[in-house]
Amino acid sequence: MNKKEEKIRLEKLRLKEMCCYEEEYASLPYICGIDEVGRGPLAGPVVAAAVILPKDVEILYLNDSKKVSEKKRNLLYDEICEKAVAFGIGIVGPAKIDEINILQATYEAMRQAIDKLSVRPDILLNDAVTIPGVDIKQVPIIKGDGKSVSIAAASILAKVTRDRMMIEYDAIIPGYDFASNKGYGTKKHIEGLKELGKSPIHRETFIKKFV
């Protein structure tokens, strides 16, 4: 076995370990992973994804989006969209985040993502949270994006969707380095805030100490 074959063998073993929750609920037809990205940034939306993968699907190098390079995330995004039984994206913008707070906005984005699925899930595997107002069985899993392939897939879709949005915002709202920082409070972002003031996509409740 050469190095490439050994690498793939080890990757398949890792993926098998990440399917323990999917195996536990294998009797259910549609297992849906839920994850979000964007709770902490000073600007931009919070984005959630819901993903139902086929049983026994194999997507090599699928992992928590934070552990995957940007190039690999984009490739995985395409593969997940191609192979998924169904997926949905929920987006809640800065004004709503300011109105209802980031936790409630996160729940709302998750509910939106579930509602956009083309099939109804039998169970939701959530990254750490229990979503209010959802009448589907939920299993909150701490650090679930590293323990469930379904949640990992959701984390990839949410991350890539939000990152692409922030890159687009950077092109029309220059001065805050959104393409690089994705709305997080980096030095260049804070400098932009102090020089230019808030932009239309800033979360007013998050930037009070800077402007």
From TrEMBL:
CDD domains: RNase_HII_bacteria_HII_like. The keyword Mitochondrion does not apply. InterPro entries: RNase_HII (IPR022898), RNase_HII/HIII (IPR001352), RNase_HII/HIII_dom (IPR024567), RNaseH-like_sf (IPR012337), RNaseH_sf (IPR036397). This is Ribonuclease HII. Its EC number is 3.1.26.4. It comes from the Bacteria. Endonuclease that specifically degrades the RNA of RNA-DNA hybrids. The lineage of its organism: Bacteria, Bacillati, Bacillota, Clostridia, Lachnospirales. It is found in: Cytoplasm. The keyword Calcium does not apply. A divalent metal cation binds at D35, E36, D127. It is an enzyme of class 3 (hydrolase). Residues 29-211 form the RNase H type-2 domain. Belongs to the RNase HII family. Manganese or magnesium. Binds 1 divalent metal ion per monomer in the absence of substrate. May bind a second metal ion after substrate binding. The gene is rnhB. Keywords: Cytoplasm, Endonuclease, Hydrolase, Manganese, Metal-binding, Nuclease. GO terms for molecular function: RNA-DNA hybrid ribonuclease activity. It comes from Aequitasia blattaphilus. Its main location: cytoplasm. PROSITE patterns: RNASE_H_2. It catalyses: Endonucleolytic cleavage to 5'-phosphomonoester. Transmembrane segments: none annotated. PANTHER family: RIBONUCLEASE H2 SUBUNIT A (PTHR10954), RIBONUCLEASE HII (PTHR10954:SF18). Its cofactor is Mg(2+); Mn(2+).
